[in-house]
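Spend some time on the protein that follows and explain the fold to me:
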Amino acid sequence: NSQQQIVIKLRSYCVCLPQVVLEARHEPGYCAFYEECGRNPTVVGSLLPPIIPCLNYSRVCPMLDRGEGSTTACCSIKQLKSLEMSLMLSKAVLMRCPSCADNFAHLHCINTCSPDQTTTINVTRTMNITTLGIVKEAVVGYQAYLSTSFADKSFESCKNVRIPATGGYAIATMCGRYGSALCTAQRWYDFQGDSSNGLAPLDIDFRLIPEGVTEGIPDGVVPYAGRALGCNEMTPTGAEVCSCQDCQASCPVVPSPPPPAEPFTIGGVDGYLVLCVIFLCVLILAFLLFVLSTYLLRKEEGKDSEKGKGKRKGMDKNGNNVSERLIEPWEVTCTDKNSLATQEFLGSGFRAWGTLVASHPLKVLLASAVVTAAFATGLMHIELTTDPVQLWSAPNSRARMEKDFHDKHFDPFFRTNQMILTAPGRPGHFYDSLLFGKQNFSGIIAKDLILELLKLQRKIQNIEFWSNDLNRMASLKDVCFAPLNPSNPSLTDCAVNSLPQYFQNSVANLNAKVNMTELGVTKEVDWRDHFIYCVNSPLSFKDITDLQLSCMADYGAPVFPFLAVGGYEKEGYTTAEALILTFSLNNYPRDNIKFKVALEWEQRFLDIVQEYQKSPGNPFTFAYMAERSLEDEINRTTAEDIPIFMISYAVIFVYIAVALGEYTSFSRILVDSKFLVGLGGILVVGCSVLASMGFYAWIGIPSSLIILQVVPFLVLAVGADNIFIFVLEYQRDARRPGEKREERIGRVLGNVAPSMLLCSLSESVCFFLGALSTMPAVKSFALYAALAVLMDFVLQMTAFVALLSLDARRQDGNRCELACCVTVKTTAPTKPNEGFLLPAMRKYYAPVLLHPVTRVIVVNKRLSFDLLYIVGLDQELAMPQGSYMLEYFKYLYAYFEVGVPTYFVTTKGFNFTSIAGMNATCSSVGCDPFSLTQKIQYATEYPDLSYMAIPANSWVDDFIDWLNPGSKCCRLYSIGPNKGKFCPASECETLSSLFVMHEYNIKKHVSNLMYNVTCVSVLLATRFMAYHTALTTSKEFTAALKIARELAHNITLSMRSIPGTSQDFEVFPYTVTYVFYEQYLTIVSEGLFNISLCLLPTFVVCCLLLGMDLRSGALNLLTIIMITVDTVGVMTLWGIDYNAVALINLVTAVGISVEFVSHMTRSFAMSIQPTHVERAKEATATMGSAVFAGVAMTNLPGIVVLAFAKAQLIQIFFFRLNLVITLLGMAHGLIFLPVLLSYFGESVCVRACVRAWARRQSLRNSWIKW
């Protein structure tokens, strides 16, 4: 046969004895050695038997195959088989690129089997060995000469071959201490010829000789200069060119992604700023032209008046021209009639209602208490949402549905418990390594600290506690993430990533030392050499030192350097500034009993870490977190800040109680005080909030901590304003002759209740419409706030009116407030008490504000306000000051080199069993250059734009590699009593394949597949894991999500074009953070939608309740819009980001703005003063004083108290933002709006018109017909 013919030919050229040819001539046709002489006694612990020299050529060395009868070689069939075994492990990682694998085998085939062997190699070391009693002289070292052109081209073909499972390069595992970054052709071959690497059977000294150099080359030796294949070339056996992922030359021309759009500029200046300035100048110019034209028109009218052409023109009290006149009855429009009819209807209705309630206060109070209690009983069923996912991600949102899909078909994203440890100030040291040269070790990479970390790690690993849920002792193995033995893990199966794992958590391995000789130099090698090797070759089962330790973790997986150390530049792992310790737990559903077990383990983890942090002997400075920490800290700070909120409410209560009093004389202080009325007002607010929460608890709408914090504050602001308006109006009003106290209360209520209804109804409808939001937190807040505001108005019209009636009865009887049986002799003054604020605003503030010059200044300054905003909520803002999580986020951003893993998940409907289907997803040889994994690879080439750092690993590529006959290594025992079970890193047998075509084994070992159990070929879901870059801000997280979705959509369209693919097939990206940051993709449009919905009812309700007064409604709406817009502008200036929490506060801002604006607008519309300015002055003095006392001065003291809260979220989004809202509301409502009304308010005074009509025609009774 052909094999016999090969052997015959070999014997004709070589000595047919198992010996080395010591005096072989360096001539073509001569062998340097032949046959095998047994095991190399100088090599121990090799991964493969180190057989040294003393089937079919076309399979192992096709480059030497000259055809049957013509092939000659210097090796036997036995040697050929050993060579095939030696090449097997290396080919396993190189076969993704056939030309690379071919080049790799090419040289070893030439060295071992070339018929011209002596022309390229020179034996340098031999030794006698005894095999079966026969002494043979064996080769244990030789020199191999090859040209640099061949070596360089071979290296170039292999240097970019990837290992998809790690995202790294195969060359990194084959270049020893240099890794992929520093590997060269010489270093690559040096590693191949080093028998200590566990693969080479003997030492080979590769000599790379440049073209034309002969110095130092033995006579007759010619450096081998065969043809090395380029990675973009087919092999002689017909194998395809390497894929783009493994060979840059094979990549199609892919245009670079467009750079980020250049900022819009005009003349080198921010274009938007220029446009804003131009627009501002146009507005100011238009306004000045309006003022000038108005002045000239009035001046001309003044001249006409002197000639007798005008009617009733003159000057008002402020020196402003009076141009209005009383309208003749026939000039009153239908709108005017409707306006007055609406006011008369509302006024008479509330007057009758107020009189009725004031006449039966106790009955009303009892009925109000019963109704409130009925609603509040629902609190027994209240459900408080604390899960951030449920709080901020809608169930039907894309990210939420994708998360549910992922968690349904795969396990939920594992729970992370992590420590990041540093040793600041600790000096580093230089280590002169025998193998790796001089290395700089930072202070944290020290043996004593690694041992200390290992001690702490073991203490945490050994956590045990009694679990009531399991009814037994529980430990880490009950909840840990054990990827290679998930069904019945032991402690060593649990995924724990740390630096000690490079030593399999063994103190003995850390302490191991051995003398080693390299290139004639003998030095001691220790843990530092092993560490350097492992961080550059984390997949290695044995290092290249004489320590011969594995780099794999004890749970059987590699520990990539970015999971063990942090804070290094590029690949300078020895200079890392931090050690990282990570425990990964399974993430169980909340209704699973093991979820509570995981929470308890994490609490024990936190207890140990916190105790360790306080221990005096702790050498580390570190930060830490558990998966439960974020939620725990939010809940903790909420509980700790409750007293701050209580103090805030107490300050507001004290202010209301004091400010509502009349204080006509010292002797009547206890009579005129309104302490109980203020307390009643606070109780009304509290009861409205309780009723709202109880009602929604009845119908199953959950509450949240934000509702508990914001809704009472909002309702208090609204309620306090109405209380002040009502009480101050009552105090300023004089009882008419013969009028009963109850009738007076009813009359006063008839005057102010329409304004209270206008604001309350606007706010309530505003919030109900705000519930259309897709954000669960915003939606629930809007629902709770809407009903609370509505209930507050109802209780004010009932319970508070009744309380005021009882208090008025007490005050009329001169009885003290807190001691009702005690009376004072001093009688009340007959003149109504206006207090201090009303006269001051009437005499000083309003005249100055409405002076002609002041009005122009106010409008121009208002138009000059800037608007800027940014979007985002960084998660550390949710933490209180002093929280350990703040320190953790600081460490995370400083020391982590790689971001969160992200999965590209495929749904059902794609045929992975077809060749086209596999080619569309894989990245190895023969795959589509625009496949799923290849497109992700392209994205990682632009990390600054794509936010992708490490390309996706692919189970499809692993499966293809398994199908390759040349790849026979895996991590399952193939023989013996443990056959089929996991093989730990310490074992070194040749193992069988991981992919065993049996349904049980696929389900057990391949976590990235989810398939139909009845038909393994139907995949319901698969996933491909990549890594983001290190993301540190909400802007980066949001951009990463957006880019990942664009990439996944592009992949989806490509894969749908494959024949047989369902059109509903989809690829989507998923990582644990997407559900939180998805809101920021649409938060601007979402915010505009919600705020617009809130603004709409303020216009509609205002118009309706003012009798279709469109102008007043428009001015009211314009001012509220300006308050909202200015709030967003100040947010940027004060560092308040625009996010979901800010959106809730902006919705609140609309509600509070209604209080500042709508009362003033209605007061202006109802004024009977003859001019715009006089009506604005009256509204500012009367209603403005009540708004200032009721809204501004009620909110401000409570807001200031919130500045002392611990939570940054409260300090920023409650203190800062509410302070901004209140100050801007006050500025617009009490400064800008009166000026705006004085210019553009309704020119016809409805009451004056109708009174003129009634006076001239005695048609007062006809108002009802109108």
Notes: The chain has 38 helices and 29 strands.
